Amino acid sequence: MTALSGVKVLDLTRIISGPYGTMLLAFLGADVIKIEEPLEGDQARQTTLYYHDGISAVFVAGNVGKKSVTLNLKTERGRSLLLRLVEIADVVIDNFRPGTMDRLGLGYETLKAVNPRIIACSVSGYGAWGPLTDAPAFDLTVQAMAGPMSITGEPGRPPVKMGVPVGDLAAGMAGAFGVAAALYRREKTGQGEQIDVAMFDVQLSLLHYHAQYYLASGEIPEPVGSAHPNVVPYQAFETRDGYLVAALWGVDYLWPVFCEAIERPDLAQEDRFATNNNRVKHRELLIPILEEVFQRRTAAEWMAIFEERRIPAAPVHTIDQVLALPQVEARHMLLNLTHPATGTPLPALGNPVKMGGDGTDALLPPPLLGQHTEEVLRGWLGLRDGDIADLRREKVI
Question: For residue 41, what are the contacts with CB-CB under 8 A and spacing of at least 6?
Answer without folding.
Answer: 68, 70, 369, 370
